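Tip: read the tokens left to right.
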């Protein structure tokens, strides 16, 4: 599910706090979305751990619609207005010489220059 383009992910801390914290850390480390956590418990240690994992908001249950709306507005201010498109196609080309001094680096560099010139829309 995290491969989708979500702006905000709400994470429940009460069912499995360790798993939830790992999830929040993964979300935040990869910049996938803004993580908002919620819990029915007011545990200061859990709050600190959530902050260290990267959660932007810690909401207490039950929360009203105004509190959620404010949290979402703050989260939306953190996200860029336009997301860069992900590159979906690509290739890895490996040039490997059988022995040193066979010219593989020269071949790889010339191939890279040729690819760059070919991909230019305008004259390079």
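Filled-in amino acids:
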């Amino acid at each position: 599910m995290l491969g989708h383009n979500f702006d905000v992910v709400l994470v429940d801390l009460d069912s499995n706090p360790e798993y939830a914290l790992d999830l929040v850390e993964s979300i935040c480390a990869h910049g996938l979305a803004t993580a908002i956590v919620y819990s029915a418990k007011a545990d200061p240690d859990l709050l600190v751990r959530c902050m260290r994992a990267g959660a932007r908001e810690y909401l207490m249950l039950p929360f009203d619609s105004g509190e959620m709306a404010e949290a979402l507005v703050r989260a939306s201010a953190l996200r860029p207005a336009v997301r860069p498109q992900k590159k979906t196609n690509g290739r890895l080309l490996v040039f490997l010489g059988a022995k040193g001094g066979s010219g593989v680096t020269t071949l790889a560099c010339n191939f890279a220059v040729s690819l760059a010139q070919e991909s230019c829309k305008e004259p390079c």
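The longest strand covers residues 34-39. The chain is about 45% helix and 10% strand.
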